[in-house]
């Protein structure tokens, strides 16, 4: 049986190291990386109340993401101040649920209305130019990803994960 690669513990005291990988050894020249090395800094969503009337941009919440899909017709709106551009979604964005029973669940934005932002219980990451978002999204469905989420999320009755923990996966 081939040796399985070992991930080196992070210098971060908030991350528990994963001792081994279920994957085959990496090819020569490849290395394990953390999410924070291949993505821009994770960003928390906008804090506002959802409104049924079209008073601003669409306001995507955790509950709007069902079975890997978003029905944009059912997504509410929100009033948004000057910071609208900071929260606008675009194809290739990956959103993560950061709290509750869906902590760690991710969603890849493939289509988005002209003006849509994401709510505060979501964290957004954008891949750097040298990583295809769809490739990262496939990893986010793997047992290796979920093992790390399970071992690093915080809280009991209301589990959660913050941007720092996410960056260290």
Can you offer a commentary on this structure?
With about 170 residues, the chain is of the alpha+beta class. The protein has one domain (about 35-165): DNA methylase specificity domains (Adenine-n6-DNA-methyltransferase TaqI, Chain A, domain 2, Alpha-Beta Complex), CATH 3.90.220. It has 5 helices and 8 strands; from the N terminus they run H-E-E-E-E-H-E-E-E-E-H-H-H. The protein has helices spanning about 35-40, 85, 135-140, 145-150, 165, and strands at about 45, 60, 65, 70, 95, 105-110, 115-120, 120-125. It has a 4-stranded antiparallel beta sheet with strand order 1-8-5-6, with helices on one face. It is globular. The model is unreliable at about 1-20 (pLDDT under 50).
SSE diagram, text form:
Blueprint: H1 35-38, E1 43-44, E2 58-60, E3 65-66, E4 69-70, H2 84-87, E5 94-97, E6 106-108, E7 116-118, E8 122-125, H3 133-139, H4 143-152, H5 163-167
Parallel strand pairs: 2-7
Antiparallel strand pairs: 1-8, 3-4, 5-6, 5-8
Search tags:
169 residues, Adenine-n6-DNA-methyltransferase TaqI, Chain A, domain 2, 5 helices, 4-stranded antiparallel sheet, globular, single chain, alpha+beta, two-stranded parallel ribbon
């Amino acid at each position: 049986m081939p040796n399985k690669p070992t991930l080196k513990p992070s210098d971060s005291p908030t991350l528990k190291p994963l001792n081994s990988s279920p994957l085959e050894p990496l090819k020569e020249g490849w290395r394990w990386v953390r999410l924070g090395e291949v993505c821009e800094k994770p960003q928390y969503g906008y804090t506002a109340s959802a409104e049924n009337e079209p008073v601003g941009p669409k306001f995507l919440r955790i509950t709007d993401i069902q079975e890997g899909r978003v029905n944009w017709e059912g997504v509410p709106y929100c009033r948004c101040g000057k910071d609208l551009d900071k929260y606008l979604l675009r194809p290739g964005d990956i959103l993560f649920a950061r709290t509750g029973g869906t902590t760690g669940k991710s969603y890849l934005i493939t289509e988005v209305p002209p003006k849509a932002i994401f709510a505060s219980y979501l964290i957004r990451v954008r891949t750097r130019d040298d990583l295809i978002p769809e490739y990262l999204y496939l990893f986010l469905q793997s047992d290796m990803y979920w093992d790390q989420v399970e071992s690093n999320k915080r809280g009991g009755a209301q589990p959660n994960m913050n941007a720092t923990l996410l960056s260290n996966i």
